[in-house]
Amino acid sequence: MHERRILVSKERTIMVFHHHYRQPAIVAAASVRGYLENAGITVVDRTSSEPIELIIVLGGDGTILEAANIAHRQGVPVIGVNLGHVGFLAEAEEEELGELCERVVRGEYQVERRMCIDVEVRHPDGSVQSEWAANDIAVLSTDKGHPALLAFGVDGEAVSEYGADGLIVSTPTGSTAYNFSVGGPVVWPDVQALVLSPLAAHGLFTRSLVLGPSSVLEIQVLPQQVQDCEVWADGRRILPAPLGSSIRVTKSTTDMQLARLVSLPFSARLVKKFGLPVEGWRGR
What we know:
The chain has helices at 23-38, 61-74, 97-106, 178-181, 266-274; strands at residues 2-5, 13-18, 42-44, 54-59, 78-82, 92-93, 109-122, 128-133, 136-141, 148-154, 157-164, 166-170, 194-199, 209-211, 217-221, 229-233, 237-241, 246-260. With 284 residues, the protein is α+β, with helices and mostly antiparallel strands. The protein is globular and about 60 Å long. The two termini are 31 Å apart.
């Protein structure tokens, strides 16, 4: 879903968020700050807690996901400039930075909403911790020498259990990330679904599963597990999952918002970012 956004407010505040130590990102951030300030826009960095309109992110997908955590709290969109590797979530490349700044100053961008997931970890003592993720959550063993012993069910019904390095639950947005690297399916971002993919599982039923948006996925850390597990949200935020914990994953009630300059079909983004061979398509 896209929302057209053209802003005419006289008082605007935008956050510029860059990769911590990559010099090209630091230099680009200074350039963006100068451009926006010359246009009369207040610019803040990642340490600010004041209300903002938008976050401009300079870095790779990891930096965009880091900034998305701030955007999630404020309910604002992010727009990324790829200074990393694949940059699947980014809207522009480094050479397009000037055009992006011009469009942001004019307030000409669309907002694309992406499904997120919520996760709750219920510990054996009854305490509960929660997180959210735009890309994925990964349930991983803290013991690198032994697999995690996990069972999972959907909508209150047991489905399977096995030993594995872990389980990945991704959104459609995250289906091109960790899920993709373990052989999971690519899911178009306008599809509402949860994707469950085992990581190096030992068992006969180890295929990825695509669940409906109303599904309630429950993952149990079995008591015979050697060491505790951890739940990683977007590869950055960690929740402990001791032996006997239950992990509940559902579609989030809030979305991630990505600012877009052009309405490009996902198939075109997929081909561009992965460099897919399309020379024979329709006689090219």
